[in-house]
Amino acid sequence: MSFAEKLTRLQVFLDADELHEEALDYVAAHGYLTALSICAEDVPEREWIDALFSEPPQYSDIAQQTEVEATLVALKAHIARQLASDEEFELPCDLD
Hints:
Distance between the termini: 30 Å
Protein name: YecA family protein
Shape: globular
Strand content: under 5%
Radius of gyration: 13 Å
InterPro entries: YgfB-like, YgfB-like_sf
Pfam families: UPF0149
Number of domains: 1
Order of helices and strands: HHHH
Structural class: mainly alpha
Number of helices: 4
Helix content: 55-70%
Number of strands: 0
């Protein structure tokens, strides 16, 4: 599965109504990961994942949990690479 496909699946998961009302949706999660990428202190992975969801989500199975969390980690790394490079930063939504 391509990175773009994984991001689409992550967006569907984060934007679902089944998550806790204080959980971050995809756009907010992208902003959160961007902030973590420029943070002076490294925040432990488990800590920022737990904070993003506010309450543990109801995954359909362990495979879904693994996929969602791995995609979040990959997205954070992707954002950090973009910020460190000269390439244009990809926004998670259109600014109209």
